[in-house]
Amino acid sequence: MSGDNITSGESRTSASRRRSRLALGFLALAVVTLSGCTREEWMRGAMPKPITKDGARTLHLWQASWIAALAVGIIVWGLIFWCVVAYRRKKGDPLPKQTRYNIPIEIFYTAAPAIMIGVLFAFTLRDQTILTKDTGTATNHVTVVGYQWQWSFQYDDDKAYDVGTVAAPPTLWLPVNKRVQFTLLSPDVIHSFWVPDFLFHMDVVPGRVNKFELTPDTIGTFKGRCAELCGAQHARMIFNVKVVSQADYDAHIAQLRAVGQSGTVTTDRYHLSGTTLEEVTK
Ligand SMILES: [Cu+2]
Q1: Mean pLDDT across the stretch 122-131?
Q2: 137 C-alpha vs ligand 1 centroid, how far in Å?
Q3: How far is the CA of 249 from the centre of ligand 1 (A)?
Q4: 225 Cα: distance to centroid of ligand 1 (angstroms)
Q5: If you measure from the C-alpha of residue 47 to the centroid of ligand 1, how many angstroms do you get, rounded to a whole number?
Q6: Could you tell me the distance, in angstroms and rounded to a whole number, from the CA of residue 244 to the centre of ligand 1?
Q7: What confidence category does residue 271 fall into, taking pLDDT thresholds of 50, 70 and 90?
Q8: Ligand 1 centroid, distance to 212 Cα (angstroms)
Q9: Per-residue pLDDT, 10
Q10: What is the distance in A from the centroid of ligand 1 to the CA of 193?
Q11: Spatial CB neighbours of 270, under 8 Å, sequence gap ≥ 6
């Protein structure tokens, strides 16, 4: 008897030790995770700071969705904890009445999520329509070609271009505060043109001409990548974006022209003609 007591006592101690170790582990993880974020990053819901005039719209949609999700979460968690505490079964309590096929409740929990999704959908559709609108006000036009495994950027108004290679990723130069319209083309498979700090990306689909606009308003160098798993070297489809003053942009265009990268993009695989990619036969 006394031997059994010692064993169960020991296993209780080791179980509680395990629990406290687990709790400490979670606490350490929380500290590490939370301390990595500034207050501003928390307020943005871990989204990058937008570097375009248009990015605020995406950010607000993201923040509002989180607020709505948290409000629903608080109500649901609150109800769960209230039930757990208020209706905790006490010794000798009989099993409560079991409820099933309660039509009003079933209608409610079918309709409520449908309404929530409907609201999220409506706001998303509204913002997407605005963000992908062709406003006709762009004063800078760039044709982006995504191909296995890099990008080329043609500055349509300035008749110059940049072509990347896996060994030497390209840089897209954009003058600050100038509305730019991107035209996205692919000669092979689906890619996705993504600059995380734009808070926007769009697929680059062969046989389709996709367009979108934005106005970069923050000078700096930013990272870009392909956001669509497009094959073995997908991860090497990286590039940089430089948002610069008009003078710096003009200097870069002059530099491209000086090294012969003027006119329309021609690589060993394709030649760009308007929005058509002509295959180069070797
Ligand atoms: Cu790709």
Answers
A1: 97
A2: 29
A3: 26
A4: 8
A5: 22
A6: 26
A7: confident
A8: 18
A9: 56
A10: 8
A11: 145, 147, 187, 277, 278, 279, 280
The mean pLDDT of the chain is: 90
Cα angle, residue 270 at apex, residues 264 and 275 outer, rounded to 5°: 55
Neighbours of ion ligand 1 (CB under 5 A): 191, 226, 230, 237
49-131: CATH number: 1.10.287
Task: Report DSSP state, residue 216.
Answer: B
Q: How far is the CA of 184 from the centre of ligand 1 (A)?
A: 12
Tens-digit pLDDT profile for residues 142-201: 999 999 999 999 999 999 999 999 999 999 999 999 999 999 999 999 999 999 999 999
Question: Locate tokens 């969705």: which residue?
Answer: 65
Domain 140-279 CATH (choose: 3.10.20.740, 1.10.10.10, 2.60.40.420, 2.60.120.10): 2.60.40.420
Query: In the predicted model, is pLDDT for residue 2 greater than 50?
Result: no
pLDDT at 282: 62
Distance 24 CA to ligand 1 centre (A): 42
- 169 Cα–ligand 1 center, Å: 13
Q: Is residue 4 very low, low, confident or very high in pLDDT (cuts 50, 70, 90)?
A: very low
d(CA 244, CA 110): 52
CB 213 within 8 A of CB 135: yes
Which residues have CB under 8 Å from 56's CB, separation 6+?
50
Instruction: State pTM to two decimals.
Output: 0.82
222 C-alpha vs ligand 1 centroid, how far in Å? 18
- Nearest by Cα to 267 from 189, 142, 166: 166
> Rounded mean pLDDT of 242-251?
98
What residue ranges do the domains of the chain occupy?
Answer: 1-36, 49-131, 140-279
